[in-house]
Amino acid sequence: MTQISRDQTLAQVLVDDDVFSGAEAAKSPLSNVLSNSIGGSESSPVVSGIDNDWDYIHLLCSDGLTKYVSDEQIAARLRSLTSSKQTCEDLLQDALDGGGSDNITIIVGRSFRNDG
């Protein structure tokens, strides 16, 4: 898996500056304090490009998933993908089973294969 975005929180800024570890940031109250937001006075949105073909499975999710499900479990679910809908439902259940109580947003998909 490759993460192409990052939290725009004060805790993440401290991780980027090598002040906090990822584990410390996750437990910090600063993980809920935004450092950037759309419409903010000094907004600077992060835009990333990604490869898009059948070999890539894309996951768009909120921290309501990643706080409660390990990267390894998410990767395992994506590797065994047979249906985007079923994978989303399985990941949602994983998050709920892990104690998820935040908003949990999950979108899974891949590019359409055109074989001719």
Features:
116 residues, 2 domains, two-stranded antiparallel ribbon, 2 strands
Summarize the model shown:
This protein has 116 residues and is an alpha+beta fold.
Describe this structure as you would to a colleague:
The chain folds into 2 domains: 1-49, no CATH class; 57-110, no CATH class. 34% of the residues lie in helices and 9% in strands. It is built from 5 helices and 2 strands. Strands 1-2 form a two-stranded antiparallel sheet. The model has no long low-confidence stretch (mean pLDDT 87).
Question: Helix coverage percent of residues?
Answer: 25-40%
Low-confidence stretches: none
Count of domains = 2
Please count the helical segments.
5
The residue-averaged pLDDT reads 87
Structural class: alpha+beta
Radius of gyration: 16 Å
Write down the overall geometry. globular
In this structure, how is the largest beta sheet organized? 2 strands, antiparallel
Order of helices and strands: HHEHHHE
Q: Could you tell me the strand content as a percent range?
A: 5-15%
Order of strands, main sheet, comes to 1-2
Number of strands: 2
Cα-to-Cα separation, first versus last residue = 29 Å
